[in-house]
Specification:
The protein contains six helices and no strands. The chain is mostly helical.
Length: 186
């Protein structure tokens, strides 16, 4: 007797697997646009309270969009491959977050140099005021940091958002995976 049970369905010949990188690139750009719009809104507000509310909205919108993108990918991938395990869902979320982080880092660099350079000057003045009260910090070091603050900010954004995406993707992947029929998908 022939055993036809296969827990992982092979893709049909006319159905192509979902491209993880292509889909992650599109979703990463969308995620970056959401973040940029909300970051601009926060920077334009004069009220610190409203700015904080906008940052909370940005956080919720980012997590919600990432969950939605991961779930869409998992369902589409499972329709072709028969399942989307935790690792595939996590990988997709992380790639999406990383690509979004790259776009946000480029935006940060452009923002610092061309769009809103006065914001960088305000930040430098605020840091200088804090550092003047600390005699253990050399003025030479401060000046070197300030000369490269655009690059430091750019790489800071890249690192922070990548780590954030890694953590959030790891958390969300458990709820976005899709296992074969008969398995517990919760």
């Amino acid at each position: 007797m022939e055993n036809n049970f296969n827990p992982i369905q092979e893709p049909e010949s006319n159905v192509k697997p979902v491209s993880k990188w292509n889909r992650a690139a599109v979703e990463g750009v969308k995620l970056a646009i959401i973040s940029i719009v909300l970051m601009l809104a926060a920077s334009l507000t004069q009220s610190k309270g409203l700015g904080a509310v906008i940052w909370i909205v940005k956080l919720v919108a980012t997590i919600t969009f990432l969950w939605w993108a991961m779930k869409r990918y998992s369902v589409a991938n499972a329709a072709v491959m028969g399942q989307t395990p935790y690792a595939d869902s996590f990988t997709f979320g992380f790639i999406t977050s990383f690509l979004s982080s790259i776009v946000l880092a480029v935006y940060t660099y452009v923002n610092c140099l061309f769009i809103n350079p006065e914001q960088l000057e305000l930040a430098k003045d605020a840091y200088m005021t804090q550092l003047e009260s600390r005699p253990e910090v050399s003025m030479e070091i401060i000046e070197k940091v300030f000369e490269n603050l655009e690059i430091i900010s750019t790489f800071g954004v890249l690192i922070i958002y990548t780590i954030f995406g890694l953590i959030v993707s790891a958390i969300l992947a458990g709820s976005t995976k899709v296992l074969p029929e008969g398995f517990n998908n919760n």
